[in-house]
Amino acid sequence: MPNPSLAQPGEGRTTALAAALRRVIEADGPVPIGHWMAAANAHYYATRDPLGAAGDFTTAPEISQMFGELVGVWLLDLWLRAGRPAGVRFVELGPGRGTLAADALRAMRSGGLAPPVHFVETSPALRAKQAEAVPGAAWHDSLADLPDDGPLLLVANEFFDALPVRQLIRATDGWRERMVAAVGELFVPAAGGRPLDRIVPDHLREVAPGSVIETSPASVAIAREIARRLRDGGGAALLIDYGYEGPMLGDTLQAVRGHARANPFEDPGEADLTAHVDFGTLGVAARAEGVHVLGTVGQGAWLQAMGVEQRAAALAAGAPDKAGEIDAARQRLTTPDQMGELFRVLALVAPGWPMPAGFA
Ligand code: SAH
């Protein structure tokens, strides 16, 4: 069998997922964007390790060990200043290859913290990778299954961008749900039939046709759940992703395949579908549950405040032949024209816990 992910679009090949989505659309009509994105990403992540040079994209923890280490230092520092509470757990949402967790846990151990590890991960392929990187972890399908008997030290890097968004689009005669329709062999975005003006804020009713309002109900629900657990059990969360302080108008849905932009409506389940994270809305949701919300700050500023320069210098001193590589990684993670500004860091902190580092 040829690897389906290597086949080119337009070859007349149809994956099982594309065929299933086509049947649904033919039977019931176009599906909402969120349904399309959820189905595509569930298949995508379940069937591969998408990270690294040979995959579709690379993430901060895969660029340098410094990233996970400084996340670990941030969590360790909070725990120490909280008075070393017993019963804390390390939780990561969407841990990828487990690289961030392994680096963070090593940094935490150096300061006397070795918490039990809980991963929220749905992909069997990535769970296997995580088991190699972090022996002894426990896995959960969702946050709902996590124990709630102690403080959580939680991190999510490039997790929220993979969660489905809902889009509304301004048609010439009013607001509609943005859907995916099937036209011949193609999938295409299309405006739904039902008028939805009543759910759009007044000041946005009359914007230009083609305007899009994007929300992520799944992300808001998860942010609330994290905040509720921190409020009731203590701890803190660090959410890192590319995003913005919304809400705002705009369509940020994109597909990435083989380190290049792809068409999000082509080959469902064979490219990574993402949307920019609306940290403004997640912050409001978390604050409503009663936690402190800090940020966002740019990833570059946050890493600098956490001592990335010093860490890079120490690593280079220990491995002079790698000094160039280490400095290139530091720059990639921090400079504004690379990952320093578009990537944002948001912190949620339980009431009664100390204020965290890096958000001055
Ligand atoms: N945090 C990692 C991986 C980012 S890729 C890194 O920075 O390298 C997104 C991760 O989220 C993958 O591990 C993917 O399998 C997981 N994921 C995506 N959607 C998910 C969902 N709905 N529930 C749980 N995990 C999910």
Characteristic terms for this protein:
binds S-adenosyl-L-homocysteine, Rossmann fold, 16 strands, disordered N terminus, alpha/beta, 12 helices, globular, 8-stranded mixed beta sheet, 360 residues, 23% strand, 5-stranded antiparallel beta sheet
Notes on the structure:
The N and C termini lie far apart (55 Å). The chain contains 12 helices and 16 strands. Strands 2, 3, 4, 5, 10, 14, 15 and 16 form an 8-stranded mixed sheet that branches. Strands 1, 6, 7, 8 and 9 form a 5-stranded antiparallel sheet that branches. A 3-stranded antiparallel sheet has the order 12-11-13. The protein is of the alpha/beta class and 360 residues long. The protein folds into 2 domains: 4-36 and 166-214, no CATH class; 60-163 and 216-349, Rossmann fold (3-Layer(aba) Sandwich). The protein has helices at 16-28, 33-46, 60-63, 65-81, 99-110, 124-133, 217-233, 279-288, 299-305, 308-318, 323-334, 336-340; strands at 31-32, 89-93, 117-120, 138-140, 152-157, 166-171, 174-183, 186-191, 212-215, 235-244, 254-257, 260-262, 272-274, 277-278, 292-298, 343-349. It is globular, with a radius of gyration of 21 Å. The chain binds S-adenosyl-L-homocysteine.
Report helical residue fraction. 25-40%
How would you sum up the global shape?
A: globular
Gyration radius from CA atoms, angstroms: 21 Å
- On the 0-100 scale, what is the average pLDDT? 95
Hetero groups in this structure are: S-adenosyl-L-homocysteine
The CATH architecture of the largest domain is 3-Layer(aba) Sandwich
What's the CATH first level of the largest domain? Alpha Beta
Structural class by SSE content: alpha/beta
State the separation between the terminal residues, measured CA to CA. Answer: 55 Å
What fraction of residues sit in β-strands?
Answer: 15-25%
**Uncertain runs:** 1-12
How would a crystallographer describe the biggest sheet?
8 strands, mixed
Order of SSEs:
HEHHHEHEHEEEEEEHEEEEEHEHHHHE
